[in-house]
Design brief:
14 helices, Ribosomal Protein S5, domain 2
């Protein structure tokens, strides 16, 4: 298959401009590392249509892969060294060695996502003799390309960090002869990202690896542990698996992503406090529901029965006293941090109601009921703003501007929150008006510029082609 036809299958009508992007990346790789074979991998960003902050509570999500992605060009090395370069000058070159332990770079360093992926592959790839300079996993020379306008916006809540982790793990696995099942590999990639300090869920990694063009992915984030056949060559049984389904999106609507321009650091205390609040809720419910491990376990209990059992607020110290499972949540341990307030009831209410909305929106999409889809998106935004408290003035301005455009079915914040992006479902005929009006209204209200891109649901991470 030719490069043009390969890119057309991935990017559709954008294949021509993508070919120029790939060619430029290949030329940059050759300038840095010299001539020779190159493997080119990609992993998409994602926008979560609905189901925010539910994944790490074993709930339901409905993400969509974007046609914006991270490219990683790689060449295997004869040793365990990883050399990293980035097309964008903001990211300095990095080098590290794969071994039983891989020391992290300073917090916030971009190479930590690749280090986490490398450590995961070293721990889980099929055993091999330690022949690569003492390592059992060979290293790579790699170049990352995720620059605008076709790369994934950084810090915007559309999963640029997870895409980098996934594409690095995929490249290292492939170049070491490991072709894992995508479902357990997605879970391992999620754990690999914990290396940078954020205790997230599995949604970003699943959509990156399992996406299908034109579809959203309904994912039940609760792992199932009953044995089932493994689809890989050689058979065997998977000890852990997940329920998911591809849900067709309406062909006459587009997914519009609008960026506030407000950036957050993904490794942040506020995110981890929300995780802690949910864990505290589980601890408070355990005397009444002894088998509970996650909020998902009480999803089928009506909220009116749960609410009186949950305190409005607990401090971190009080949550620990109730034996909340916080040991793996990266929280400070000084006296001030122990007095930090956890909004337990409100956070649990958001998770409970959001799970119901995800199930309802899947039913509405399957019925072709776009009006109900839009109403549920609006409800989800209100819950994330009021109960989970992850919005900000810029997000509110964008959502308000989006809803004012005729042809917008619904809009809400997407991603972790505190900045980043909104997602809107917009009729294709209204896209030009949306781009013009939302930009104007946002500028007038905030003095900021927004970047808006109309997306098509893209495919999952893969080896795109090999040159040489």
């Amino acid at each position: 298959m030719s490069l043009t036809s390969t890119l057309k299958r991935i990017y559709g009508e954008a294949a021509e401009v993508q070919q120029a992007r790939y060619s430029a990346a290949l030329a940059a790789f050759a300038r840095i590392y010299g001539p020779g074979p190159v493997h080119v991998f990609r992993a998409p960003g994602r926008v979560n249509l609905i189901g925010e902050h539910t994944d790490y509570n074993h709930g339901f999500v409905l993400p969509v892969a974007l046609d914006r992605d991270v490219l990683l060009l790689a060449r295997p090395r004869p040793d365990g060294i990883v050399r990293l370069h980035n097309v964008e000058p903001d990211f300095a070159p990095r080098t590290f060695v794969i071994g039983p332990t891989i020391p992290p770079a300073p917090p916030g360093d971009w190479s930590n996502y690749v280090r986490g992926a490398a450590r995961m592959v070293a721990q889980h790839a099929p055993p091999a003799p330690p022949v690569y300079g003492g390592a059992n996993v060979r290293g790579i020379d790699a170049l990352v390309e995720s620059a605008p306008p076709y790369g994934i916006p950084r810090g915007a809540g559309v999963s640029s960090s997870s895409a980098l982790t996934v594409v690095a793990a995929l490249a290292l696995a492939h170049l070491n002869g490991w072709q894992p099942d995508p479902v357990p590999f997605a879970r391992l990639c999620s754990e690999a990202e914990w290396y940078v300090g954020t205790r997230g869920g599995i949604m970003d990694q699943f959509i990156a690896l399992l996406a299908r063009r034109g579809y959203a992915l309904y994912l039940d984030c609760r792992p199932q542990t009953s044995p089932r056949p493994s689809p890989t060559r050689g058979g065997g049984l998977q000890s852990e698996w997940y329920t998911f389904a591809h849900v067709l999106l309406p062909s006459d609507y587009r997914i519009l992503v609008a960026d506030t321009g407000v950036r957050h650091t993904n490794v942040r205390g506020e995110y981890n406090l929300r995780v802690a609040a949910c864990r505290a809720g589980v601890a408070c419910l355990r005397p009444y529901y002894p088998r509970i491990t996650h909020l998902r376990d009480v999803q089928d209990v009506v909220w009116a029965e749960l609410a009186p059992l949950l305190p409005e607020v607990l401090t971190v110290a009080e949550a620990r006293a109730r034996r909340a499972d916080l040991d793996d949540v990266p929280l400070p341990t000084d006296d001030a941090a122990m007095d930090a307030k956890l909004r337990v009831r409100a956070c649990c209410r958001h998770v409970h109601s959001e799970n119901e909305r995800v199930r309802a929106i899947v039913a509405a999409l399957e019925a072709g009921d776009v009006a109900t889809v839009g109403h549920l998106l609006d409800e989800a935004h209100a819950s994330a703003r009021d109960d989970y408290d992850v919005s900000c003035p810029e997000l509110e301005a964008l959502v308000e501007a989006a809803r004012a455009v005729e042809g917008t079915a619904g809009a809400r914040l997407t991603g972790a929150g505190w900045g980043g992006c909104i997602v809107a479902l917009v009729h294709q005929e209204a896209v030009p008006d949306f781009e013009t009006e939302v930009s104007r209204r946002y500028r007038e209200q905030t003095g900021r510029e927004t970047t808006i891109f109309a997306c098509r649901a893209g495919g999952g991470a893969r080896l795109v082609f090999v040159v040489g």
